[in-house]
Structures are given as C-alpha cells and as structure tokens.
Amino acid sequence: MKEKFKKYIQLRMDAGEEGLWFSPKRNKNLQLDELKKQMEECRACRLGRYRLNPCFGNGTYNTEIMFIGEGPGFVEDHRGEVFVGRAGKLLDSIIRDNLGLERKDVFITNIVKCHPMKDPSNPEKRGNDRPPTEEETGVCIKKFLEKQMDLIRPSVVVTLGSPSTRTILKRKTGITKLRGNIFEKRFSNTKVKIVPTYHPAYLLRSPSKKAETEKDFKLIKKLL
Ligand code: SF4
C-alpha cells in the first residue's frame, strides 16, 4: 500500500502538480527511498555479486551534516547498516559528546555501498576486508554517493579516515596532514565544507589520537 501511494505521489509530482503533500522535504525523502531501492538491486560493479547486504547509510535525510567512510566491513555486510560494532559505537559517542547529536540526527554512509572482500566466495570469513578498487569506487560514487549528496544537501561533510578523504578531496596526502582543516569543494552539484578526521576504527587502535579528533569536532561544531 505504502509503495503504491509513493508511486502515485511520484506520478503526480512528475506531472508537475502541486499540493499539500508535495513539500520539498517529503519529495526529497521519496527520492532517497527510491535511490535506496535502486541500490538494493544494484550489480553495477563486481562488489554487488558477492555482498550479503548493501548499506545505503543510516540516520536522517534531513540534516546539515554527513559522515563518509570508505566501505562496509564484515558486520555491516551482515546487518545492512553502516558503522556498527565497536567502531560504530565509538563514532556515535564522539558525535554525541562533541556535537550533542545522536545518530538519528545526522547521515552516515560510505563511498561504496557493498563489502569489498579479498575472498568474495567466503563472506563468512573474518579479516576478509580489502579496500575498494578505483573502478568500484568511481562507479558507486556516480550511481549513489553523488545523488545522496545532491538530495540531502548537507552543508558539512566529515570524511572518516584517509581513503574516503583522499577520494572526496581527490588528493594523495594522508589524513594526518589533511585533518584539522576545512576544505570548500563542489561535490557533484553540491557545494560543501569538508572536514577530514580520523576513522573511529583507527581511534580504537590509537586512542592517543582522540584529542586531535576532539579538535576536529570543535571545527565542525563552528560550521553548524
Ligand atoms: S558497490 Fe555500489 S555500484 Fe557496486 S554493486 Fe554495490 S551499490 Fe552497486
């Protein structure tokens, strides 16, 4: 019923009709739900052949701030949610303690939506993660991340860790040199301020970097 109603509304909107239900916010949410459905069917790169569950992102579409990591890992692949497990819990607490926001108040996603695996024939194997290739990254950004960005239109994007920072900023420099700075950039059709910071999984291994992370979040808070 819900799907039929969405289709009906979409048809009326495509026909250019205006009405109470055609609020920009509702329209945006419908388009993002549609994009999520497309992702669930997507097999545009080889990651789609082996993933268990693609991960669109978690949180709200109606937010000023978006967090972007590299790609789903083992737990994410099994749950279809981004940043779960210990690293996800740490990210939630950093957001809460430094910005006074919960996961439901922000949008968290990854560059690629499916789990890149060294041995794709065995998604049950631990330690099977690998970085996405340039080709996989390029395809997924075009198909999904750019559209998410253009629909959500955050004013601030926080890149988590070196790979997502390098990809979004198109730079080769590592996170240690890029963090602590604000970059203004057009990503697809959206002009955003980008603040790179450490990935929470790295912070679990290197807790001494938490002080620098807190500095990054002070910068982020000023931008909101
Ligand atoms: S990683 Fe992205 S482009 Fe590749 S199959 Fe998954 S959703 Fe599609």
Q: What features would you describe in this structure?
A:
The protein is α/β, with parallel strands linked by helices and 224 residues long. It has a single domain, classed as Uracil-DNA glycosylase-like domain (Uracil-DNA Glycosylase, subunit E, 3-Layer(aba) Sandwich). Helices cover 48% and strands 13% of the residues. Strands 1-3-2-4-6-5 form a six-stranded mixed sheet. Strand 5 and strand 6 (190-197) form a beta hairpin. The structure holds iron/sulfur cluster. Iron/sulfur cluster binds next to helix 3 and helix 6.
Strand order of the largest sheet: 1-3-2-4-6-5
Distance between the termini: 38 Å
Q: Mean pLDDT across all residues, rounded?
A: 93
CATH superfamily: Uracil-DNA glycosylase-like domain
Identify low-pLDDT runs.
none
**What is the gyration radius calculated from CA atoms?**
18 Å
* Second CATH tier, the architecture: 3-Layer(aba) Sandwich
* The CATH C-level class name: Alpha Beta
Q: Looking at the chains present, what oligomeric state does this protein adopt?
A: single chain
| Order of secondary-structure elements | HHHEEHHEHEHHEEHH
